[in-house]
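Final report, results section. Input specification for complex C-07:
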Amino acid sequence: MNFIEDIIQSISDKRSVVCMGLDPRIDKEGEIPQFLINELEDPNKIILEFNKTLIDNTFDLIPVIKPQIAFYEKYEALNALKDTIKYAHKKDLLVILDSKRNDIGSTSEAYAYSTFKVFNADACTLNAYLGIDGVKPFLQYKEKGKFILVKTSNPSSKDFQNIFSAHLPDIINSKTEINVENITLERNYIKMARLVYDWGNQLDRFSEFHNLGVVVGATFPEELKAVRNVIKNSFILLPGFGAQGAKVSDIKFGFNQNGLGGIVNSSRGIIYAYCKSEKYPPSKFGEAARDKISEMNFKINKEINL
Amino acid sequence: MNFIEDIIQSISDKRSVVCMGLDPRIDKEGEIPQFLINELEDPNKIILEFNKTLIDNTFDLIPVIKPQIAFYEKYEALNALKDTIKYAHKKDLLVILDSKRNDIGSTSEAYAYSTFKVFNADACTLNAYLGIDGVKPFLQYKEKGKFILVKTSNPSSKDFQNIFSAHLPDIINSKTEINVENITLERNYIKMARLVYDWGNQLDRFSEFHNLGVVVGATFPEELKAVRNVIKNSFILLPGFGAQGAKVSDIKFGFNQNGLGGIVNSSRGIIYAYCKSEKYPPSKFGEAARDKISEMNFKINKEINL
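Structure output:
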């Protein structure tokens, strides 16, 4: 497999750029249906059954799923995560493991191994606050996809990502503060996008894209446009669609004229769609997810000319 | 328990600011001794036995241990992690779970639950690239410690953490680029330290410290000094001692006149100390760790007047 090649093929075959986020929540009412919880008891069984039903109902409509590892960790259900990924592969789905890992080189190697060898994900999300050291061990898995956080979908992403940063490569490294005149400042998320551009520059491309992508919240269309101007060759994973409030018109700058370049994720908006309409009893949560995805595909494809 | 209160008490009782990093590695020669691997086979058993022996040999000399979750994930040994934490608590050790988690609010809640409820850690490390949203769910656990990455110990931490950033709160948010004159720039890690200062400002203090700390690599003494000037009330977790090359004189700026304010972590330098000297056969890896810690305590306490 090669992630970028496979996802471009699958997007074209299935005519979809939608990613179904698998964020299983057992605690609250209106999330994983109560009948599954009562019937199966063990979180590993509940979550696996929930995910399999979702996959069975949607695999022909989407190229990729994105399990969020935090929830599997919370319920001590990492076996359900492994089994979900195995099942998704059988059903011709690619898998992005959303884990936002980050660490120094020798530890990052362990994370990369666990992501790609233990869980057998096809791609993952990464946080690059630590610079290239933490990313390199993931780049060693050349055929796998990596999506680096650039501008995240949450409101407070502005706290750090939107502060201004300056490119002053020649300033002596030991200085911690400096006064400057007439220099150009850009926001931190743009600086992060430039780093990703540099790191990805030498990678093999399929069509115009390589395996080092970025994450930009669909909730921030202006920022998405700015990031796309910096990185032409990266796929952009766009979370924040649906429950977090992003609309179809917000995502178009992520895509090229062929409708390629972006993956639009929705988690709660799809998998708990049955809670939002009286049309679906809890037993029909899979059908509700399928209908929601059909609606997303229709609306998004019109906007991006896929 | 209250992390900051308990660690200050323990530092004073044991006269040590050393943290033993538990990074189990089974693959390479010269790491977890071969006799344990051959005898126990199952990674959960190997790692737990290794950790218990290390704890038995060192618990009276140190206030705290820091398991790095990446390695437990790699070997599918999260049970060994849970059991290690339980064992450490019995032996009067505090536990910082090194996981550098980061996500949007609703997902971060799941990580916080898993850190403090599933694994029962007393403190953890966090990456705050996403801003306060991802940190808040951890702050809800008021009595637990949190250490936010400010300046990490790895060489490429400069890629992003050392670029210059500007404080321009009144600039219109939609602009992505701007020209400015006569403004003061500071490096990104200083900006992150200022965010932590703001977030921690309202927290309860014990002595002068509260439960929101930071991580600064012991490998960067100048940066440590600069961060300490920004945050007087945060404990600083100092990794990078030993295998990564930091020396005793590099850490002194982390501490106040009473020898408080810092925790000095060494992982490989302590737990694989038996590999570095012919004095210790593999069966004596616990004694080697103890001797290494005694040496560290002696040298560090002299430097920081503890």
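Chain A touches chain B through 71 residues (CB under 8 Å). The CA atoms of residues 86 and 145 of chain A lie 17 Å apart. This concludes the modelling results for the funded period.
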